[in-house]
Design a protein that fits this description.
The chain has 102 residues and is an alpha+beta fold. Helix content is 61%, strand content 14%. InterPro entries: ArsR-like_HTH, HTH_ArsR_DNA-bd_dom, WH-like_DNA-bd_sf, WH_DNA-bd_sf.
Length: 102
């Protein structure tokens, strides 16, 4: 049984975050994505495989080219996780502010 890639694993790497940032602006071919990085094509392909396996990137083959686009629905999991801590710290800081004002 193949384990599903975790979106947190995907965004943990700075290169993958940079790829998502590029694709957030526009759809690019795989070669155009690779041209933005100083690394080998196999290394970029590995990053793209991880991003596609966790659902952050969609690759559509059109003729001989593969067009890549960002898919942000997978980031909802990250947003929900972060929201619980944002709420926690917001409450803590509000309490601290009240104590300081007294």
């Amino acid at each position: 049984m193949k384990a599903r890639r975790d979106v947190f694993q995907a965004i943990a790497d700075p290169t993958r975050r940079a790829i998502i940032g590029l694709l957030a602006k526009e759809t690019l071919t795989l070669n155009t994505v690779a041209d933005n990085f100083n690394m080998s094509q196999p290394a970029i392909s590995k990053h793209m495989r991880i991003l596609t396996e966790c659902g952050l990137v969609v690759i559509v083959k059109q003729g001989r080219e593969r067009h890549c686009s960002a898919s942000f629905s997978a980031l909802q999991e990250v947003a929900q996780w972060a929201a619980q801590y944002r709420h926690f710290w917001s409450n803590r800081l509000d309490t601290l502010e009240q104590l300081l004002n007294e």
